[in-house]
Amino acid sequence: MNDVEIILLTNIGSDTDKDGFEIDVFEETAVWGRECSIRGSEFYEAQRQGIKLSAMFIIKPYEYENQTQLKYEGNIYIVERTYKKDTENLELVCSRIE
Question: What is the pTM of this model?
Answer without folding.
Answer: 0.86
